[in-house]
Specification:
Number of strands: 10
GO molecular function: 8-oxo-7,8-dihydroguanine DNA N-glycosylase activity; damaged DNA binding; DNA-(apurinic or apyrimidinic site) endonuclease activity; lyase activity; zinc ion binding
Largest sheet: 4 strands, antiparallel
Catalytic activity: Hydrolysis of DNA containing ring-opened 7-methylguanine residues, releasing 2,6-diamino-4-hydroxy-5-(N-methyl)formamidopyrimidine
Pfam family, one: H2TH
CATH superfamily of the largest domain: MutM-like, N-terminal
InterPro entries: FPG_cat, FPG_N, H2TH_FPG, Ribosomal_uS13-like_H2TH, Znf_DNA_glyclase/AP_lyase
Order of helices and strands: HEEEEEEEEHHHHHHEEH
Helix content: 25-40%
CATH topology of the largest domain: N-terminal domain of MutM-like DNA repair proteins
Distance between the termini: 25 Å
Family: Belongs to the FPG family.
Length: 282
């Protein structure tokens, strides 16, 4: 899943390449991609991109008319081709090339292909005069990569919340932009169990969680910034310390990384670093 570090890198890539270009057409290969059924893609024809913004795990192409919000979901991504060039190829490690679900073509011949590699469609596009009024953006919680995210704000989010930390970190209405992989990395850095309830954290644990959130994300944003968009997935996978490392030694203590019970292998943790040396019970 692309999370805020990868989506921010993509937004920077598009800011440099799409800004100033005029959209020729948006072609849907899969009609379900369009989430605002009362708006038509033809509204963006002949509109010029004047800016690109990121909102959590979403990117907005702002034009001199309506805005286009791209929500990447679980397995969405983008490929780019300048006029006369082939699209940026996906990671060589991918066994199957992700299918294209929509194409944004520009009048100078450049093209952006939107792809979705999931078993079910998760990428979506929405058209709005003001994309910040769309629920996907309006319902987002604070972005933990901004100065507005403070220890006091985090304290307010976790106090009284009988929700497991792993689930809370991925709850976009609480914190924008964190998904499955970075929530594992954050909790490992904070030395906290993924199944601990937020309401059970003491002051020291809340401080560790704040430091881990800001530290892990800041490092990831810096590391992804100049990585080509077709290599973002591979760079993310290579950077993980516990996520996706089942059965490998923890880089901190050497204990074996285990799957979080009930996650079906999708989430990982270190028993020693995060649970006093005891495996989590199913």
């Amino acid at each position: 899943m692309p999370e805020s570090p990868e989506v921010d890198a993509l937004a920077g890539f598009l800011r440099a390449r799409a800004t100033g270009r005029t959209i020729r057409a948006i072609e849907l290969e899969e009609f379900r991609v369009l989430k605002t059924r009362n708006r038509r893609t033809e509204e963006l024809a002949d509109r010029t991109v004047i800016g690109v913004r990121r909102f959590g795990k979403h990117v907005s192409l702002d034009t001199d008319g309506p805005g286009l919000l791209i929500s990447f979901g679980r397995a969405g991504w983008a490929r780019w081709a300048d006029a006369g060039e082939a699209e940026t190829v996906p990671d060589a490690s991918d066994a199957v090339v992700a299918p294209v679900v929509a194409r944004i073509t520009f009048t100078d011949g450049a093209e952006m292909a939107l792809t979705d590699a999931g078993d079910w469609l998760s990428l979506g596009i929405s058209i709005a005069d003001d994309v910040t009024t769309l629920p996907a953006v309006a319902d987002l919680g604070p972005d933990p990569t901004t100065p507005a995210f403070t220890p006091e704000l985090l304290d307010g989010l976790v106090r009284g919340r009988r929700k497991q930390l792993k689930a809370l970190l991925q709850e976009q209405a609480s914190l924008a932009g964190i998904g499955n992989a970075y929530s594992d990395e954050i909790l490992h850095a904070a030395r906290l169990s993924p199944t601990t309830h937020a309401s059970a954290l003491d002051a020291d644990q809340r401080e560790r969680l704040f430091v881990a959130i800001t530290g892990v994300l800041t490092a990831a944003f810096d590391a992804r910034r100049d990585v080509p968009i077709d290599q973002q997935k591979a760079a993310k996978v290579a950077s993980m310390r516990v996520h996706g490392r089942t059965g490998e030694p923890c880089p901190v203590c050497g204990d074996l990384v285990l799957d979080v019970p009930g996650s079906k292998g999708a989430a990982q943790y270190c028993p020693t670093c995060q649970n006093g040396g005891r495996p989590l019970e199913p």
